């Protein structure tokens, strides 16, 4: 067994009264991919931030190549050869994609001028390796969450890393992009780098990693060779009890059409998209990153306007570009980007959760904290949101718990048509099954559910029908019986048409 | 409950109120006249137009916008009122309604440019600051219209029977409570804080961002025009330069009151406290024969302090929080 390239020992870290990590150890070896798993709020991202020099541990030491390593800030970590992909993309919206990737270490020409041509060329190179079809010169503003993640990946790969740390890099990516990322990660690993990989998708973990470390409530539980483990055993260690990792949709009575989309078009994004969703149905919208799925649901919800087409909810036509009216008609959208669209990060858990319902919760136009607190508590408990207090800013929650708050916020509106865009992004196994159970129960109550998801097992497990988009068009409408990996991927990649 | 008290004690609102008490006490002890009822009458008369404008402006700044044209709207309202009076309109309700409509129009223009055309409110309202003041000069030139009935002019500043405090303070107090309720205890107020922190997420939650901002600009315009009527009657004079530079005093009060210039943070208690604090400070210094220029310097310094202050407090807190855990002894290998 080779010695550790990067080691942590006895590491603890608290945020105020919350102990995020307690006496954690971890060894990353050269030429090995190491998975870190745990429930939402287990402390994974906190550990990543310590490796990245963003946070300093309260106690404990880091070693690199056997020597003690002190990381005072992210620059120290980069100098040590540690590349980090954070859970939440943090791009500068007004800079171009290429500028974001080379931020702070742009290639220079004489007199210290930035060599823009070189920046662009090296970005193209990186994108080719990753198979990304993004224009290096476009601003980062308006990139989908998946594209943002791809840019973050390119950024981490843009310098020669000896340690590559990836915090849920695949959460919004579909199979094709994940494969490409893994290709790059494997070649890095095989050339002697150490890889730390965090994910809630077990198929990915077992596909990439040789070693698996489990964290629970901020404490180290176990480290084992992946070959000696099974999904069930890992889950049991994560949760401390038995959980079913999948919850297939129950059969329900299909009722009247509740969402009717006719000929929706927005130049440059999607063309002539028509479909219906009936009460009791869960319809998945599958496709590759950039196929236009999120854009379609945004337009339906009234966030963006559209050039042509109509949206009807329960037989009534919705005004384009009027989100308020859409909500009043019983529509709800759990958006893809929780930090920008789903949540107001500075506001409390409670205020975020009750924002769409603030009028309903008021009496005679007045809102006292009481009604909001009670409403927020009910749904936080149902979705097991882990937070120190309902008054804590939602920014202090772990990624998965933030996602639960977004879900709670919209489920609480008791929608007639529920649109969810990557609903379980970053959510752990136990809660994921719970979310699936909830969606299924909603459908049984007559709600029409439209689910955008890049995770194929989720699509196949939950959907009564699978709609597939390719380059802005609907290319397939596959009933549950004949939906499988192959048929969906074929339609998504446009092969065989 | 204890937690509540502790949080309240650490808040900026509380600091402002403490500062107010300190200034009053020190002033009363060291400057002759500060303790007199006359002094307070002046402070309140001066604070009334500032408070009236600061109320809607607080809400607007919380959404992340700003309106620099408020004092010019006040001036324009004064001149239009004067002009109408001079041309024979002698009904106070009519004058009030016309000025109100004018304020609504001025605010709507600001709001339209910001929400429809997506221009930054700073740029738009610097423009209308000049424009509305210019229109005020067009309306009245450098004339002054001063011949209002004494029943109006005295009525505007009349004291509450048996006291020296002007009765207008009751009107302002009612308005302040109204705005505070809207901001702190209604769905509208919840939306304002959401918009100020993240307008994209607010849109996704069904908050009508553009519409909300538009109506706040309108409210700010309308209240500025009302302040203009009070101004005219208090000084018994409608002139184009009425309230010149008053926007500085109003914005200083809002920011000193703890409202973040970036939006999303602050409350009305602090703002009302800051309006009074600044009023007391200005008048006390005047009594102490501090020259007018020095007063401007004081206002300016407080403005800067109010922008830096809350940030400094937040940074210091974060530092403290971060330092505390690291004091535990790290284990060495
Ligand atoms: N800035 C912060 N302030 C206060 N508490 C925090 C902060 N960041 C994280 N925490 C808390 O620390 C704990 C661990 O969070 P962390 O983000 O490391 O979890 P995680 O394992 O990455 O979870 P997930 O799978 O949801 O991403 C959580 O309880 C979280 O609420
Ligand atoms: Mg995390």
Automatic annotation (TrEMBL), chain A:
One of its GO terms (cellular component) is plasma membrane. It comes from the Bacteria. InterPro entries: AAA+_ATPase (IPR003593), ABC_carbohydrate_import_ATPase (IPR050107), ABC_transporter-like_ATP-bd (IPR003439), ABC_transporter-like_CS (IPR017871), P-loop_NTPase (IPR027417). Its main location: membrane. It holds the Pfam family ABC_tran. The keyword Transmembrane helix does not apply. GO terms for molecular function: ATP binding; ATP hydrolysis activity. Residues 6-242, 252-496 form the ABC transporter domain. It is a peripheral membrane protein. Keywords: ATP-binding, Cell membrane, Membrane, Nucleotide-binding, Repeat, Sugar transport, Translocase, Transport. PROSITE patterns: ABC_TRANSPORTER_1 (PS00211), ABC_TRANSPORTER_2 (PS50893). It is found in: Cell membrane. This is Ribose import ATP-binding protein RbsA. The lineage of its organism: Bacteria, Bacillati, Actinomycetota, Actinomycetes, Micromonosporales.
TrEMBL record, chain B:
The keyword Cell inner membrane applies. Its main location: membrane. The keyword Transmembrane helix applies. The chain crosses the membrane at residues 12-33, 39-61, 68-86, 92-114, 121-140, 160-183, 214-233, 245-262, 294-316. GO terms for cellular component: plasma membrane. CDD domains: TM_PBP1_transp_AraH_like. InterPro entries: ABC_transp_permease. It is found in: Cell membrane. Keywords: Cell inner membrane, Cell membrane, Membrane, Transmembrane, Transmembrane helix, Transport. It is a multi-pass membrane protein. This is Autoinducer 2 import system permease protein LsrD. It comes from Virgisporangium aliadipatigenens.
